[in-house]
Design a protein that fits this description.
By secondary structure, this protein is mainly alpha-helical. The protein contains 24 helices and no strands. The longest helix has 21 residues.
Length: 480
C-alpha cells in the first residue's frame, strides 16, 4: 500500500468507535488479569448473552495487545455470531464496535481489502441509522464503551459514568444502561450525606425497579445502605441477593464483603471460598480473603491485646500474606494489596522484604498515578509500629494527608498525626514541632483559626522555621 493510501485508511480508522480508539492504554492495566476476568465472565455466563457479546469483542482487543491478533479475529467471529443470534434483526447497531475492531485487526495484519470491507459495512449502518449529529453516538455504542471502561481499570470509571449517562439520555428505560450507570456511580461516588441525597442509592433503586432480578444490584444497594446506617433494609437486600443468585461469584464476593464489614468474618470466609471454586484466579477474591484474616487478627489484638494468642496471630499473619501474595501475582499493579503485603511482611518481622516491597509499591503508584496516598499511609504505619521511626512515620502521614485529605487514609493520617503530637506535648509542652504538626492537621482539615493558633505556638518555640512562618503568614492573610 502506498503511503498516501495508508494515511487515508488510517484517518478513517481513527474516526471509528471501538476498543482501538478508546484510549485504553496498555500500561494502565494487567492485560493477563483482564483476560482472566473476561474469560470468567464468558465461561460463567455472568452477563448472559449480551454480556458474552461484549466480553468476546473486548477479549479480541486484549488478545491483540498480548500479541495474538489471530485469536482476536476468532473472538470477534464468536462475538458477531452470538450478537446475530441474540439480537436477531435488531443486531446491526450492536455490531458497530465489533466491525470497528475487525477493521483495525485486519489493518494491523496487513489485510487491507478486508479492512476496507468492514469500513464499508460501518458506513452502511451509519447511512441506515442516521444520528441527529455527527458527535452523537448510538446508545449501544455509549453502553459498550461504558462497560469497557468499567472493566478496564479504576481510573476509567468516571469515563464509564459519562458514557452510561449519555446512553440513558437516548434510552432512559434501558435496563443495561441503568445498571451500568448505577455500578459506575457506586464505584465513583462516596457518600457524605444521608440516604435521601445519595445519587448512587437513587440510581440503584431505579435500576432494580427496571430489573428486579439483578442480584448484583441488590447487594450493591445493600452495601451502600450499610454505609448510610440503613441496617435493616441493607440486611434484607443482601439476603435477597444471595437467595436470588446463590452461585454467582460476583454476588458471593460482595455478600462476603458485606458480612466482613458486619463482623461475620467466618461466614464471609466460607462464602468467598465457595466463590473461589468457580473463579480460582480472582485477585479480588484473594484480596477479600486476606482482609478477612486481617480482621480476625485485629479482633484478637483488640481482645486483651492478643495475650496468650501469639501462635494464632502468627498463623493469621501467614494467611494474610499467602492471599495477598496470590492477589498481587494474579494482578500486577494491585496497589492496595501490594502496600498491605509490605506491611504484613513487616508484621512477620521480615523487615528487608517489607522495605523492598514498599519501594516497589511506591514506584508502581507513581508510574500509574494512582493511590500514592495509600502507600504513604501504609509506609507510615510500618515506620511507626515496626521500625519505631517516628520521624519517618510523621513524614509519610503528612504526605498522605496532603495528597488526599478526604479519603479514609487521609483521615486516618490526620488522626495518627494528632495522636503523635499530643503524646509529645504531654511529655514536653515546649515542643514546637508537635505544635507545628497540629497546625498542619488543622490546616489540612480547613480549620484555619485552630491552625493559626498552633503555628503561633510552634513559632514561640521554634522561630527559625520557614515552614511555620509561611503557614502562619498564609493563614493570617486568609482570615483578614
Amino acid at each position: 500500500m502506498n503511503p498516501s493510501h495508508d494515511r487515508a485508511l488510517k484517518t478513517k480508522l481513527l474516526k471509528l468507535e471501538c476498543h482501538f480508539t478508546w484510549t485504553l492504554i496498555k500500561e494502565n492495566v494487567d492485560v493477563w488479569d483482564l483476560q482472566t476476568r473476561l474469560e470468567d465472565q464468558i465461561e460463567l455466563d455472568l452477563g448472559k448473552k449480551a454480556g458474552a457479546v461484549r466480553s468476546l469483542c473486548f477479549l479480541a482487543y486484549v488478545r491483540y495487545l498480548q500479541g495474538f491478533p489471530d485469536d482476536g479475529i476468532a473472538n470477534l467471529l464468536k462475538s458477531e455470531e452470538l450478537a446475530r443470534e441474540h439480537y436477531g434483526d435488531d443486531c446491526e447497531r450492536f455490531l458497530i464496535v465489533i466491525y470497528g475492531n475487525y477493521a483495525w485487526l485486519h489493518y494491523h495484519r496487513g489485510d487491507y481489502p478486508q479492512c476496507e470491507s468492514y469500513l464499508e459495512k460501518l458506513a452502511g449502518i451509519k447511512q441506515k441509522f442516521p444520528t441527529e449529529s455527527p458527535t452523537v453516538l448510538y446508545p449501544e455504542v455509549y453502553g459498550e464503551k461504558g462497560w469497557t471502561f468499567l472493566k478496564f481499570a479504576r481510573n476509567y470509571y468516571d469515563r464509564a459514568k459519562e458514557c452510561f449517562k449519555k446512553a440513558l439520555e437516548l434510552e432512559p428505560e434501558n435496563s443495561e444502561w441503568n445498571a451500568g450507570y448505577a455500578i459506575a456511580l457506586y464505584r465513583t461516588e462516596y457518600e457524605r450525606s444521608g440516604v435521601e441525597n445519595s445519587e448512587t442509592v437513587k440510581q440503584l433503586r431505579r435500576a432494580i425497579e427496571i430489573n428486579p432480578g439483578d442480584a448484583v444490584l441488590l447487594v450493591l444497594l445493600g452495601l451502600r445502605l450499610k454505609v448510610l446506617k440503613q441496617v435493616s433494609e441493607s440486611e434484607r437486600l443482601v439476603e435477597d441477593a444471595l437467595e436470588l443468585d446463590p452461585n454467582n461469584p460476583h454476588v458471593i464476593r460482595y455478600v462476603g464483603k458485606y458480612l466482613r464489614n458486619s463482623g461475620s468474618v467466618d461466614r464471609s470466609i466460607a462464602l468467598l471460598k465457595r466463590a473461589m471454586e468457580r473463579t480460582e484466579n480472582s485477585a479480588f477474591l484473594h484480596h477479600q480473603l486476606a482482609l478477612c484474616y486481617k480482621k480476625k487478627k485485629t479482633d484478637l489484638y483488640h481482645t486483651g491485646g492478643g495475650k496468650g494468642k501469639g501462635r494464632e496471630i502468627r498463623q493469621l499473619i501467614r494467611q494474610v500474606i499467602y492471599h495477598l501474595e496470590l492477589a498481587t501475582t494474579l494482578k500486577s499493579g494491585f496497589i492496595f494489596a501490594m502496600a498491605d503485603l509490605a506491611l504484613h511482611y513487616g508484621e512477620n518481622n521480615d523487615i528487608a522484604r517489607a522495605e523492598e516491597m514498599f519501594q516497589t509499591t511506591f514506584e508502581t503508584a507513581k508510574a500509574k498515578h494512582e493511590h500514592l496516598h495509600v502507600v504513604h499511609h501504609y509506609y507510615a504505619q510500618f515506620q511507626q509500629h515496626r521500625n519505631k521511626c517516628e520521624t519517618l512515620a510523621i513524614k509519610h502521614y503528612r504526605e498522605c494527608l496532603t495528597l488526599a485529605p478526604e479519603t479514609f487514609e487521609g483521615k486516618q493520617s490526620a488522626y495518627h498525626l494528632k495522636n503523635l503530637a499530643e503524646k509529645r506535648l504531654a511529655r514536653d509542652r515546649r515542643d514546637g514541632e508537635a505544635f507545628g504538626i497540629l497546625g498542619f492537621v488543622h490546616k489540612a482539615k480547613g480549620e484555619k483559626r485552630q491552625a493559626l493558633q498552633c503555628y503561633e505556638k510552634a513559632l514561640e518555640f521554634n522561630m527559625s522555621s520557614d515552614e511555620y512562618l509561611s503557614a502562619h503568614c498564609e493563614l493570617s492573610l486568609s482570615l483578614q
